[in-house]
Amino acid sequence: MLYFISKHSSVLLIVATFAGFIWPEASLTVFPVLPYVLFFLMLFTLLGIEQKALLKILKESNCWIYTFLHSVVMTVISCSLAILIGASDSLLVAIAAVSATGSLFATPAIARSIGLNALTAMAMTIATTLLMPLVLYINLHLFQNNEFSLDIASYLIRLIVFIVCPMVFSAVVYHFVPRPTLTRVHSKLSQVTILLVFAFPFGLVGPLREAFNSNPSIAINYVFISFCVCFIFFLSSIVFYLRQGKDIALLAAITSSNRNVLLTFTVAGTSLGPDFLILLGALQIPTYALPLFVRLINNYITTRHLSPQTNNTK
Fold it and tell me: For the segment 75-92, what is each residue's pLDDT rounded down to a tens digit?
């Protein structure tokens, strides 16, 4: 069963999103426990990654160039387009906040599920999360007319709990546990990890359902905006990284499109304006539709690349 779920996780992530929308009471019940799910998600994912290799990637300039693209460049692109189409001040603040947001902590597990490099995805996720408060502060200063405050203490605590602690635990495990044992355990843990990812689309889509109950047309409008935002992030990353190869381009695209908007909401709260919470819920649909889309693109490119070789062998 775990193998089946892991194999079809791209489709099941979308199913979980719509299940949360259809069953809002259950979605709101899951919402408060998401931080605990997040901790174990990070822990299980990092157990499959050697920390020396992770730190090596984090020291590379390419990782931080991507981080600059993920936060600063995407802010310029998305906010410029929002201003051009006449977005309201509240919506502009919400888009600026999403653009500053680091990558979703579930991104490495999603990357692994579609055959991309989980180690690089984890390094990108950590780097963008570290840069997030600075870019978020600048963005809110530029686009938020009212006074605002960021709960930096809460942010630092979450960084320690969700990133530092799992990394330290993983390093200790790698030091004391034999590598063959780790390989066997991680092959099972990787299947459990993808199960934990399902909790996020299911638990975060609730605000969109509340907006839909109040005004369906507004909710649909936010879904359209969320698809546009994700498409901008995805396409821009593809364009920037396509010369470096298909795999890195797809990985950059999906990492850029997956945004940890729950962490941003925790840090900035009401400073993000009334549109952000609805956009948070709406973003779950394109965010968790992307893994299936990327898997299809990846399979298509691979098949097309192999076809001439197959014909030549014949």
Answer: 999 999 999 999 898 999
* Model pTM score: 0.83
189 burial (CB, 10 Å; 0-12 / 13-18 / 19+) is middle
**230 contact partners, CB below 8 Å, separation of at least 6:** 257, 283, 286, 287, 290
DSSP annotation of 71: I
10 Å Cβ neighbour count for 241? Answer: 20
Say how many residues make up the chain: 314
More confident residue, 148 or 33: 33
Tokens, residue 110: 């999603």
Tell me how many degrees the CA angle 226-219-100 measures, rounded to the nearest 5: 30
pLDDT at 99: 95
Q: Which is nearest to 148 in space by CA: 263, 280, 276, 272?
A: 272
Under a CB-based contact definition with an 8 Å cutoff, are residues 234 and 293 in contact?
A: no
Report how many helices (DSSP H) and strands (DSSP E) the chain contains, helices first.
Answer: 19, 0
Cβ-proximal residues to 108 (8 Å cutoff; 6+ apart), any chain = 45, 49, 118, 119, 121, 122, 125
